[in-house]
Amino acid sequence: MRRGAFLLLLLSPFAAAQAPEGMIMTPPPASAADQAFMRQLEAQRKAQAEGKAVDRNAKPADEAFLRQLDAQRKGLEDRGARAVELPSAPPKAAAAAKPSGTATTANRAAAAPRAMPAAPAAPEAPPTLDEDLEAIAETEGLVQPDQGETARDPTKTLVFISLSMPETDLKALFQQGRGREDVTFVLRGWMPPHFTAVAGRVRNLMREAGGDDINVVIDPFPFRAYRVSQVPVFIHQRSEGDWRRLTGAVSLDRAIDEIERGNFNHTLGATYRVAEPDIVEEIQKRADAFDWDKEKAKLAERAMTNLDGGKPLVALPRAQATREFFVDPSITLVDDVVGTDGTVAAPKGATINPFSFMAFSKSFVAFDPDDPKQVAVAKRWLKEHAPAMLLATHLPPPAKGKPTLAQSFGQSVYPLSPELVARFGLAAVPSLVRQNGLLLQINEQRP
Are 264 and 8 in contact (CB under 8 A)? Predict the structure, then answer.
């Protein structure tokens, strides 16, 4: 799939109720130093957009700004937010319960089927010291392999988003992520059954952002692995190689710049709840609530009704005597049999006996399942001439509390079609059909 396509990883027609949208947390007012820093970054972004040289070393009031961020973090902690500091060299322990091979960009090969992990019952805190982002990123297939391995993913920055965010913010992020193979935007799902509406809205935002060369995926698994319940969240692999996290409605460039400078694991801008449900969890809930046994019984009854309507497929009389006769299965060709190279393999009018080229591997037992005596004969023949295929003149619908026809025989029972009656030369039931040299041997048994 070419880069920039809107990649769908999961699909389901199940319905769910629309939850209200809205912002749930905003940061404290910024100080003068904070505002000065923001203005400087905005100027850098504007210059970059205009193709001008950008001085990345221009950082006004760095010390004052860092002090302000520290104060903001303390304030957010008092309001229920968590600021987590991770070690600079996290251990290589796989900590996230996430199947490997998750697709997170439109360029990569299709992901292998994965087991469905149980979703948390309630939003959980971001990964802690024991669950570092680098280990999670490795299970997500995002850590670059050692030299000599096959490259797995060019993604360096994951941006978790939701349609609960203002469209202006989403379009701005899409504009900044245009043409960037290293940036992937992740949606958790959609409001079933309205996938078309969600896909159309995302497509419109991409077009309004200037094109479709934007990597957008729908995948609930990264949301689980990184425990994302508020957006936007930026998870970026720094130049040192470690993965770090920043939360809040800031520009893509600023989020990456902050993480590269060491200002990570805190909330810097406004956050919004994730409006879209975990589509895998939704499917699992509905699958658990579905009465599969009832549906299977209904389908089986419908299949039987469609097959023969409860009436015999063929009208064969009950055998009045025990006799044996033979049938020649040969056929006469009405047209030439021509090979792929145009050579005539068998001319029109030729007589062909299929037993000259093949042999039956089993016997065939034809019987009326409504006749208990015929059923007894069929069971005896099944033992004496195994392996044998059972052919019933009709398949009675299953009755409550009683074994099915297949259960009573301990093997599958197939319908006896008019075509088989003609090919075998059957005249009555029960009948036993076997190969005898180049002929069919038919034994009728009076029950």
Answer: no
